[in-house]
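dude i think i finally got it to work??
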Amino acid sequence: MSPIPLQILDDTPAADTPADGLPTLRRPGLLVMDVDSTLIDEEVIDKLGEAAGVGERISAVTARAMNGELDFAQALDARVALLEGLPTSIFDDVYRRLHFTNGALQLIDELHRHGWKVGVVSGGFHEIVDRLAEAAGLDYRIANRLEVDDASHTLTGRVAGPIVTKDVKLRAMRRWAADNGVDAAQTVAVGDGANDLPMIDAAGLGIAFCAKPAVRAAAPHTIDERDLTRVLDYLRR
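look at this
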């Protein structure tokens, strides 16, 4: 009887798949990031709080929520309540005081050149996020929306519609990936707060960016320099 030939299995990764299994620019992918303190340097709700004269109270709650010490939805409701009575013109003033994080626009442009999609998922507000998304050329965005009294053109102190929670962020990343035929291995999630951890954990590459200590400890990868082009260091392989 002739011997049965050995079956040699080729475990060599495909040419366009890095051996470490992380996403690569050589294939289309999806990057999703947080907005406040990630895409931009500031926390928008803190800036709104300053305009309302309650900046320190709001900043204290923001810090605890970002570190995972408070339920995000409850913390957001408490902070937004302090904004009651602010005129809607405040969004123009706050937007002019915001700054894209160093390297943010370069990162987005480079990803687009390689056929990637880029979206943001924010616990902040459409009234600001939509303007940032247009300026940065983003493909997708979700955020909260503040309720407005149409008669007085002032904020009511409430959020209009469902709040963008950590689960909403995760579902958005998965939906956008599916819509573009991008598998999980080609997704990147970047954020700085506890609300970002589920999408950071689920992405092919999850990065805590200049994050709170609890988030840094839980994330698989960290960047501690405020330069978003450092994300490309993981992808150019």
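The longest strand covers residues 140-149.
im so relieved honestly
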